[in-house]
Amino acid sequence: MVSVIDRLNYRAKLLGTPKVKAFLDLIEVDTLELPQVSEQSEADALYYSGLYALSSGHGDEFINLYNDFSRREPDERAPYIRDDYLLFILICCAEKFSTDKVWLNKVLNCRLCSQAECTQTIETFKAVLRGDTQNTSNLTAIVVLIQDILKRSLPNSQALKKMYTEYMKEEFPLYRSDFLTITALRAIDIVISEADIPGDGKNAGLKRFESMFLKRTEYGANFFYYSAMFLIIGLAASLYIRYKDQMDTLNTIVGLLGLVGLSVPAVFKKEFIVSYLHKKIQKLFGYSAVFKED
């Protein structure tokens, strides 16, 4: 079982590593803060360029760096071969920007694994590259995260439920590998939010209720607006009948107000008032306190 305190402490420890922090920025908050360094390896430059490309959608710089980097022959002794963060980003970029997968497969084939975690990671990477995202032997968390970054459909609900159930039984941290633990934690959040896991229907019901609530509060705001307008029009008609003799003076005052931008349409602009009322109704029922606007 993963406790909130365990997660917070674990995450705080990881934030001290620039490469991991940038990865967390991409998968969690989608606001990237790249480290300012005077010198970095070609592999790190490629990694950060890939992060920026995925975050911004602009892949030209990354593609140029990747085309240059991929001219080298993969060597199992090279540090980048064992960098799961870099390999993950390269796979995401290969899927998004259609970069060369042949070289990337050669890199994955060069990776020699002595632990089951490593073997599963590399085999899942290979499966994603060949489009086999529904393979039951995949590490589902990796697939979920890649599909989420690329804004593609998640694996089937059976695989998601199985992943969720297994992780809920595990002690923390979920893996020896920080990369896999980070991936698993984010995948849990994604499937809870997007796929109605653990499957009791509450998340889907809350989403439907939220949509219905927002529509009905908007209808309520419009109702109050038009009710107020009818009252004002009725009051104006009553005043017109009662003070008909003074209408010339009133028209003069209204005309002067119009010259300084205080005409009736400006003061009672529908879009502004309805939006204001909509927010006030949401606040009245506590919606704004729970779903705070950025």
What are the salient characteristics of this protein?
single chain, elongated, mainly alpha, 294 residues, 15 helices, 2 domains, 69% helix, 0% strand
How is the secondary structure organized here?
Layout: H1 4-14, H2 18-29, H3 42-56, H4 60-69, H5 84-97, H6 101-110, H7 116-129, H8 140-149, H9 157-169, H10 178-194, H11 202-242, H12 247-259, H13 264-267, H14 270-284, H15 287-290
Mean pLDDT: 82
Major pleated sheet? none
The end-to-end span amounts to 31 Å
Task: State the share of residues found in helices, binned by percent.
Answer: 55-70%
Q: Pick out the low-confidence regions.
A: 259-263
How many β-strand stretches? 0
Tally of separate helices: 15
Query: Whole-number radius of gyration?
Result: 29 Å
Order of helices and strands: HHHHHHHHHHHHHHH
Shape call: elongated
Structural class: mainly alpha
Q: Strand content of the residues, in percent?
A: under 5%
Oligomer: single chain
Q: How many independent structural domains?
A: 2
